[in-house]
Write a structure and sequence with these properties.
single chain; 84 residues; alpha+beta
Amino acid sequence: MLVLTRKVDQSIMIGDHVRIVVVDVRGDQVKLGIDAPRHIMVHRHEVYEVIQEENKRAALQREIDVGTLEKALREVRPDAQSDL
């Protein structure tokens, strides 16, 4: 882990496109401003963990019904019966 010391209005860069600025420091709280492109998701760590757990849960719960898949393929390609 890299540990840096910064003062209010000072920043650090992550790569070429993400800038983190120290906005305010009061007691034991630090306010950070994050400037990143829209395609880069930025979450608090606890929110990120919840998202990851929900994604894992959704992936495990998803069952593929072969009959439903076969029917969907037939609707898209009526001649798909010979492929199955």
